[in-house]
């Protein structure tokens, strides 16, 4: 039997449970629905896509992009030193640090996000610390708003940034760092001219891993945003679960997916060029 | 303007034969349920058998209700399937996509109307549930698709110590908002929030007028900067902790925290309280209709019903159960039985209005 047959189960699975739903999603986006009786009609209208140009959806998309960029940049800034520290550690210390990064994934995403409600509430540890610094009033809290959403996104997505950066940093040959020292490069110059360029593929990969899911994020805004911050993921969720307007929800999801695919393709090309240079 | 969709009758002929079977069993069921003793129920239970599959909120039933029913009706079992979370659309989709798999469901009046419009409900024969007569006619009229089980009313909970002069009406609350800015929490249910804005303007909670809805949107957009959050879980927590002084919430939200927080008060605004009734409905395609009616009838026995209310802490509809219900519930100012309470029941609105309201709500959220 040809080895290609070994691919068949995986291909069938992907076709049935990935491509077929995607095709269905796109088909639905050209239909219309009676939100009372759920009767679909396929007149192949583009009205759902035309609605996406309204200020409501554009603003929500822009807000999502802004929060995603902020969260991704924050994850990169916080994640790089952590990844570097782990890559420099050896033996059991490195294992422990890696487990510390991975351990939160053993808990449900939703539960982890809800945990922040307690930390940011009036009685929470984080709020208490800010109150001690005089940054929060008595009875005040840090919940509900773009700040709380940003904290939630940073926390939940940080491991996705740390791990790919750690992998590339771990592969850097120590000889290169020794050579940089031998030619008199300072620590800062070594970081800028040796470590950072070599870590670039990991940073780009981390940005993709964080940025793509963060753009469509709706759980964190729903829990920590207090319903006051409307992101594109929340609109899609509402259209499917609350209103039952599947065609509009599908159009929103398909458009978001198309944008992300373009971003992914461009990023992949950029990543390939960086790796070639490296 | 109220806009309750009339019950469709397109399935009536198809279901006639099935219902005739049930009608034959009705006198037996009536005998089973008219008395409160188990022995009477068991004698009727011999004619019933099989498994009832019920779509229900997790644990939204009396603690021993299912086991007691199964003892009273040997041969009949009840399997509960968790109702989809996320809202009416998700719940309707769950039932519609599994048509024939479920025998009955818990449904708010809007969901029940929606299911009826979609032809997913079995026509309800009230005479097959004799204990239904214990529910006041106003609730039965408002919930014609099955047995009404409980209701929810939206009012104002507030901190007596931090807000000594609370608003007595929705209009007063919106007017007061700037003075307690950042310390107000609203429910995250668009229908209710649109309803309180409409009531504050003197309009119906079921308004379909675009002009009135736009005015309500203006009220909500104006108040939004003063809100702490729209919450759907732990809605009273900020108020208990003191970071909020006023919460627009359901009666059961208030009742949950009021026993241990005597400084929290409850106000029924002068314009009325938006509310819903929910109940149990029989679903189309069920082959266990007789068993479903028996279960419904059993649910409305005062002792059984009291167990349901004790477990759920919902606002109750069966006055005969009052003495059997836990004192903390029957004496709670928000939950105590009051058939004349000024509740404005929300109804399922036409598709165009539903879409318009959704757009308005999203504009409020995005504002």
Report a brief summary of the structure.
The complex is a heterodimer of chains A (278) and B (367). Chain A is mainly α and 278 residues long.
Keywords:
heterodimer, A: 278 residues, mainly alpha, MetI-like fold, two-stranded antiparallel ribbon, 12 helices, 74% helix, 1% strand, globular, B: 367 residues, alpha/beta, 11-stranded mixed β-sheet, 15 helices, 18% strand, disordered N terminus
Quaternary structure: heterodimer
Name the biggest interface: A-B, 33 and 39 residues
Please tell me what the overall shape of chain B is.
globular
Structural class determined from secondary elements of chain A: mainly alpha
Q: How large is the share of residues in beta strands of chain B?
A: 15-25%
List segments of chain B where confidence is low: pLDDT < 50 over at least 5 consecutive residues: 1-45
Largest sheet of chain A: 2 strands, antiparallel
Secondary-structure element sequence of chain A?
HEEHHHHHHHHHHH
The CATH superfamily label of chain A reads: MetI-like
| Number of separate strands of chain A | 2
State the total count of DSSP E strands of chain B: 11
Which parts of chain A are unreliable, with pLDDT below 50 for 5 consecutive residues or more? Answer: none
Structural class of chain B: alpha/beta
CA radius of gyration of chain B is: 21 Å
Query: Treating each run of at least 4 consecutive H or I residues as one helix, how many helices of chain B?
Result: 15
Elements of chain B, N to C (H/E): HHEHEHEHHEHEHHEHEHEEHHEHEH
Compile the SSE list and pairings.
The complex is a heterodimer of chains A (278) and B (367).
Chain A: H1 8-28, E1 32-33, E2 40-41, H2 47-51, H3 55-88, H4 91-102, H5 109-120, H6 125-132, H7 146-171, H8 174-182, H9 187-215, H10 219-224, H11 232-243, H12 246-277
Antiparallel strand pairs in A: 1-2
Chain B: H1 12-34, H2 38-45, E1 50-56, H3 65-72, E2 76-82, H4 88-97, E3 104-108, H5 109-117, H6 137-142, E4 147-159, H7 170-176, E5 184-187, H8 190-200, H9 210-223, E6 227-231, H10 237-241, E7 246-250, H11 251-257, E8 264-267, E9 273-282, H12 289-299, H13 302-312, E10 315-316, H14 327-330, E11 343-345, H15 351-366
Helix pairs in contact in B: 1-2, 1-12, 4-5, 7-8, 8-9, 9-15
């Amino acid at each position: 039997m040809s080895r290609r047959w070994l691919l068949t189960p995986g291909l069938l699975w992907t076709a049935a449970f990935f491509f077929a739903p995607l095709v269905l999603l796109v088909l639905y986006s050209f239909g219309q629905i009676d939100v009372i009786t759920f009767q679909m009609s396929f007149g192949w209208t583009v009205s759902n896509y035309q609605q996406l140009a309204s200020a409501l959806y554009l603003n929500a998309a822009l807000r999502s992009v802004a929060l995603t960029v902020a969260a991704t940049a924050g994850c990169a800034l916080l994640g790089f030193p952590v990844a570097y520290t782990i890559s420099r550690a050896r033996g059991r210390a490195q294992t422990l640090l890696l487990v510390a990064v991975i351990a939160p994934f053993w808990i449900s995403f939703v539960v982890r996000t809800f945990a922040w409600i307690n930390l940011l509430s009036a009685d929470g540890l984080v709020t208490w610390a800010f109150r001690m610094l005089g940054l929060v009033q008595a009875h005040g809290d840090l919940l509900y708003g773009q700040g709380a959403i940003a904290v939630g996104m940073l926390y939940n997505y940080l491991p996705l940034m740390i791990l790919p950066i750690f992998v590339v940093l771990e592969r850097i040959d120590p000889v290169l760092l020794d050579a940089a020292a031998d030619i008199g490069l300072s620590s800062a110059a070594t970081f800028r001219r040796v470590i950072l360029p070599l870590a670039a593929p990991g940073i780009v990969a981390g940005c993709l891993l964080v940025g793509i899911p963060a753009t469509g994020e709706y759980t964190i805004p729903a829990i920590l945003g207090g319903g006051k911050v409307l992101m594109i993921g929340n609109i899609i969720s509402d259209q499917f679960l609350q209103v039952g307007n599947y065609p509009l929800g599908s159009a929103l999801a398909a458009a978001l997916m198309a944008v992300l695919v373009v971003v992914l393709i461009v990023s992949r090309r950029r990543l390939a060029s960086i790796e070639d240079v490296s | 303007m109220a806009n309750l969709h009339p019950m469709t009758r397109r399935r009536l002929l198809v279901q006639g034969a099935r219902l005739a079977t049930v009608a034959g069993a009705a006198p037996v069921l009536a005998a089973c349920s008219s008395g409160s003793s188990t022995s009477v129920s068991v004698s009727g239970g011999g004619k019933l058998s099989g498994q009832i599959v019920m779509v229900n909120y997790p644990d939204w039933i009396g603690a021993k209700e299912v086991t007691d029913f199964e003892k009273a009706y040997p041969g009949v079992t009840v399997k509960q399937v968790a109702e989809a979370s996320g809202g009416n659309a998700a719940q309707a989709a769950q039932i519609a996509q599994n048509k024939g798999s479920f025998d009955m469901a818990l449904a708010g009046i809007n969901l029940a109307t929606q299911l009826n419009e979609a032809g997913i409900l079995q026509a309800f024969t009230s005479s097959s549930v004799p204990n239904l007569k214990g529910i006041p006619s106003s609730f039965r009229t408002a919930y014609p698709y099955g047995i009404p089980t409980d209701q929810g009313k939206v009012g104002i909970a507030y901190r007596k110590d931090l807000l000594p002069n609370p608003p007595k009406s929705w209009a007063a609350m919106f007017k007061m908002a700037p003075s307690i800015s950042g310390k107000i929490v609203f429910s995250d249910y668009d229908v209710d929030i649109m309803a309180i804005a409409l009531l504050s303007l003197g309009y119906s909670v079921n308004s379909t007028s675009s002009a009135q809805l736009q005015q309500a949107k203006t009220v909500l957009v104006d108040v939004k900067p003063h809100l702490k959050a729209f919450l759907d879980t732990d809605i009273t927590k900020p108020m208990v902790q003191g970071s909020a002084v006023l919460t627009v919430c359901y009666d059961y939200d208030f009742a949950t925290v009021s026993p241990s927080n005597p400084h929290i008060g409850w106000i029924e605004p002068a314009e009325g309280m938006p509310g819903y009734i929910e109940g149990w409905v029989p679903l189309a395609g069920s082959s266990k209709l007789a068993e479903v009616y028996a279960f419904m009838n059993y649910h409305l026995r005062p002792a059984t019903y009291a167990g349901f209310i004790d477990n759920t802490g919902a606002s109750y509809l069966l006055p005969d159960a009052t003495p059997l219900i836990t004192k903390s519930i029957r004496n709670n100012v928000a939950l105590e039985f009051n058939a004349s309470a000024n509740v404005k029941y929300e109804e399922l609105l036409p598709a165009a209005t539903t879409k318009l309201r959704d757009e308005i709500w999203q504009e409020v959220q995005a504002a």
